[in-house]
Amino acid sequence: MGEAIECPFLTAEEAAVFLGLQKRTLDNMRWKGTGPRYRKHGTRVFYHPDDLTFYSNSRDCHSGPKIPEKSGRDFG
Are 39 and 45 in contact (CB under 8 A)? Predict the structure, then answer.
């Protein structure tokens, strides 16, 4: 027999764990079209780790120091 081929794709359950989400949340995101890119092989849904990483990186939030806005008035 030949060697087993390792599949690079993750199931929805595995992808949810990868992203730290509940599977139901990931399913809802897919239904709404707001989640990460996915593939369908027959009726099954799969995610590639690179697509999950890209999706996660696109959600990066910066919480740096806030710079006060100038009001236009000078109180100096």
Answer: yes
Residues 22-57: tens digit of each pLDDT = 999 999 999 999 999 999 999 999 999 999 999 999
Residues 47 and 39 sit within 8 Å (Cβ to Cβ): yes
Give, rounded to a whole angstrom, the gap between the first and last alpha carbons of the chain. 83
Using alpha carbons, list the distances in angstroms from residue 39 to 8, 15, 64.
12, 12, 36
pLDDT of 71: 60
- Show the tokens assigned to 31: 């239904």
How far is it, in rounded angstroms, from Cα 65 to Cα 43? 47
pTM: 0.72
